[in-house]
Design brief:
Blueprint lengths: L2 H4 L16 E2 L3 E7 L5 E5 L2 H5 L3 H4 L5 H4 L1 H13 L6 E7 L5 E9 L2 E8 L12 H12 L5 H16 L3 E7 L5 E8 L10 E2 L6 H9 L2 E4 L7 E4 L22 H10 L3 E9 L2 E10 L7 H44 L5 H7 L1 H7 L4 E6 L2 E6 L4 H14 L5 E3 L2 H4 L7 H4 L1 E6 L7 E6 L4 E6 L4 H7 L13 E6 L8 H28 L4 H13 L2 H20 L6 H32 L5 E4 H12 L8 E5 L4 E4 L1 H18 L6 E9 L3 E8 L31 H11 L3 E6 L5 E8 L6
Parallel strand pairs: 22-24
Antiparallel strand pairs: 1-11, 2-3, 2-6, 3-11, 4-5, 5-6, 7-8, 7-13, 8-9, 10-12, 12-13, 14-15, 14-18, 16-17, 17-18, 19-20, 21-23, 24-25, 25-27, 26-27
């Protein structure tokens, strides 16, 4: 190990502030101008070598002091007409020492950042005329490519031709962020990485984020000595100068060592961004230092953007065809599930379609203490253990994994049949599940070097962490994983769950009609049955399905308004389906038996917060959770009540810049009391008596979504435990909801 390598702190790589390195690469220099006065207020220390003037003489001086009056006039004119949100070519200047430099400019933090890149060009200015024929030729060739690999190969070939790099490869990031090389063009003597993988750790998270923002990065010589910025911080803000879009931005010493270890001191990376996500990179390498002029980089960036658009189009086309096939299977299954009153018999009749729907080797239905297995499914004992685990650790409407044993170690024994599962709960109160199983797919991955090298270094006490030094092929045999679940499979499974809940609801209605003692719960169920009869639910399913089909097949002939109308129709139908779902849950509250046991309220609240965290969408929420008491109650029922209260608090604090939601508890001589408070919009206390009724809303649906059933569920759950629920609020100042659970529960 060299001394330089040993001094690199790789443990800080994930925390490195790569957007504000405080220095640049020395194949050019930068001048930071005050955007208002165009005076030089910050610059790189190597500016003196290019301009022939001392740094102190340039600081505070006008732009002309560095480039001369004529060029300064030209650049100022460009600055007055260009927005400069991203680096823009402003012209080419020739300084007093005869050096010729391209000038790129962009604005950031009140600065105009001018970057001067030394070029070896006889012409006075950059020539962009090659761009049009290059793009035209590339597009015509792409139209003949039938796969992502073929398109990537064409892009690598074209970029290698116009840049002269010794090796150009295209790699795609998989769902675990590992890079898979899908295309490569290389000169003799360069190692080949085609079809090999690079571990996710090779590209830290903050570097991935930067690649999404700034699509191209050039490092002409990894052995450069960085040129510091003077002064160190932005004089206007006092903060480090943001070089996110700078083409000369200095890069991480860890990455420079990585390049040297790879034997390629020159590199250029171009982002492939698909739907706002970093799909992959076009990575160019050279065994000797190599500079690429701006006009060539611009051409490469355009080619990459065209490739990304074609990849997006190809993936959308493939996904659309797959979704259509899933929907055909879904329609066939729903027809079969409505044939007879016996739900489990109906499921058995469509078992073949169930297996096709999930591309699964096995399926299991867990319903009313029965387990029905189809295909190559695990044993009943294993399925019961899996359902117990799911009910404890999964609180979403769908659960999926392609590596079950990594989450549930006990599942290793069923890896052959169930390395991957997709499970949908078909009851909010009982452990009723439909589960698809995918078998283990043992496969060998070829890595460009040992992907676990960094992990072993981190686990060795006192060992210095270094960038990966070996890129020799390293083969790893992977066990315990299945084929991954596609997004379309997961989304369609959610639609299937909604339809199943409707079918289960219909069965529950039929059973209720046979009961001798209806009582209060059955009266509400009867009202519910009239409201969501079969004649209402079936059209809702058809509305959503046919709307999707229209959007898929007739989009080209629809006007923008027509497409908007169709989406509104689909959203309304789905809302109605959600209403049916909530009403089913409400009716079940009155009929299901309580199963009280010692319950830890803190665990229930934490589980609810974890589930709600997926819907916060970047909001700032401060949770203030006190030490809550334990009590005897039905944990499933009580968790649903807490979830409804916390979900309400999250919803009605949405207008606040910071939501503050607190949960506290107290114990009296005969009961346990829980309070949920928020700083949201509150409600008019005059109408608080209406809060806990079915379909009662104190806010307009246009302002806050919801079906008006959640608080009714809370009241029913609390009353089933023999407790009380109440609320108070000052409009505009938040709300407080409380409930009490007696220590001595009533007989159920």
């Amino acid at each position: 190990m060299t001394k330089q390598t040993a001094e690199i702190d790789l443990s800080a790589c994930e925390r490195e502030a790569i957007r504000v390195p405080g220095s640049i690469q020395p194949h050019g220099f930068v001048l930071m101008l005050d955007d208002a006065t165009h005076a030089i207020i910050q610059l790189s220390e190597n500016a003196a070598g290019y301009t022939g003037k001392a740094v102190d003489a340039l600081l505070g001086a006008p732009l002309a002091a560095a480039v001369g009056d004529s060029y300064a006039l030209t650049l100022r004119a460009a600055l007055s007409t260009e927005r400069l949100e991203r680096p823009t070519y402003l012209g080419t200047v020739q300084l007093a020492n005869e050096a010729r430099l391209d000038v790129l400019g962009h604005r950031s933090q009140g600065l105009v950042i001018l970057e001067f890149e030394a070029v070896k060009r006889s012409a006075a200015a950059a020539d962009f005329r090659l761009l049009y024929p290059l793009v035209g030729t590339f597009l015509s060739r792409l139209s003949d490519a039938t796969s992502v690999e073929a398109m990537s190969h064409l892009a690598a070939l074209e970029i290698k031709h116009i840049t002269g790099f010794g090796r150009v490869l295209v790699y795609h990031f998989d769902h675990q962020d590992h890079g898979h090389v899908v295309a490569e063009i290389g000169d003799p003597g360069y190692p080949s990485y085609l079809n090999q993988r690079f571990p996710a750790a090779d590209v830290p998270v903050q570097a991935r984020e930067l690649y999404v923002t700034n699509h191209i990065r050039l490092i002409p010589d990894a052995n450069y000595q960085p040129a510091r910025l003077i002064p160190e911080h932005n004089p206007l803000t006092g903060a480090p100068t943001d070089l996110t879009f700078s083409t000369l931005r200095s890069v991480s010493p860890v990455h420079l060592q990585y390049m040297r270890n790879m034997g390629t001191p020159a590199s250029m990376s171009i982002s492939l961004v698909v739907k706002g996500r970093l799909w992959g990179l076009i990575s160019c390498h050279h065994a000797e230092p190599r500079y690429v002029p701006f006009e060539v980089r611009a051409a490469c960036e355009h080619l990459a953007q065209i490739l990304a658009l074609r990849i997006e189009s190809r993936e959308e086309s493939d996904e659309s065809q797959y979704r259509l096939e899933l929907r055909r299977i879904l329609v066939a299954m729903l027809a079969g599930l409505s044939r007879t009153p016996d739900f489990t018999d109906n499921v058995a009749s469509v078992s073949h379609d169930l297996l096709r729907f999930g591309s699964a080797s096995g399926v299991a239905l867990v319903f009313e203490h029965r387990i029905c297995r189809f295909g190559d499914a695990p044993s009943e004992e294993d399925i019961r253990e899996l359902v117990q685990w799911l009910s404890t650790y999964s609180h979403d409407d769908v659960f999926h994994t392609d590596a079950l044993s990594q989450l549930m170690p006990e599942a290793r024994r069923m890896a052959r049949q169930a390395s991957g599962i997709l499970a949908i709960p078909i009851s909010r109160l009982h452990r009723h599940y439909l589960i698809w199983f995918r078998p283990e797919v043992v496969h060998t991955i070829e890595w460009a070097g040992d992907p676990h090298e960094k992990e072993r270094q981190a686990q060795t006490p006192g060992a210095a962490l270094t960038p990966r030094a070996s890129f020799d092929t390293w083969r790893e045999t992977v066990h315990g994983t299945s084929l991954p679940w596609r997004a379309s499979e997961i989304e369609t499974a959610l639609e299937f769950r909604t339809a199943l809940l409707g079918i289960v609801l219909e069965r529950a209605e039929q059973m209720a009609e046979l009961a001798e003692e209806l009582g209060r719960a059955n009266k509400e169920l009867e009202s519910f049955s009239y409201s969501v009869s079969h004649d209402l639910r079936a059209p809702l399913r058809h509305i959503v399905g046919y709307s999707d089909l229209l959007l898929e097949f007739e989009r080209a002939s629809l006007s923008e308004r027509g497409e908007r109308y169709l989406r509104n129709i689909k959203d309304s139908a789905r809302f109605a389906g959600k209403l049916v779902d909530d009403l089913l849950s409400f009716s079940q509250m009155g009929r299901a038996s309580l199963r009280p046991r010692q319950t830890n309220l803190n665990e229930l609240v934490n589980a609810c917060i974890e589930r709600l965290s997926h819907d916060l969408q970047g909001r700032e929420v401060r949770w203030e959770i006190g030490e809550l008491p334990t009590l005897v109650a039905d944990p499933s029922f009580l968790q649903l009540a807490l979830h409804n209260l916390l979900a309400n608090a999250v919803k009605y604090t949405r207008p606040r810049q910071q939501a503050v939601i607190s949960v506290s508890g107290e114990t009296t001589a005969d009961s346990t009391i829980v309070h949920v408070r928020d700083n949201g919009v509150g409600f008019n206390a005059e109408y608080k008596h209406k809060l806990f009724g079915v379909f009662q809303r104190l806010h307009r649906l246009e302002e806050f979504e919801g079906t008006g059933i959640g608080l009714a569920n809370v009241q029913r759950i609390v009353e089933r435990h023999g407790g009380q629920v109440w609320a108070d609020s000052v409009l505009g100042e938040g709300a407080s909801f409380s409930f009490s659970i007696p220590k001595q529960l009533p007989l159920d």
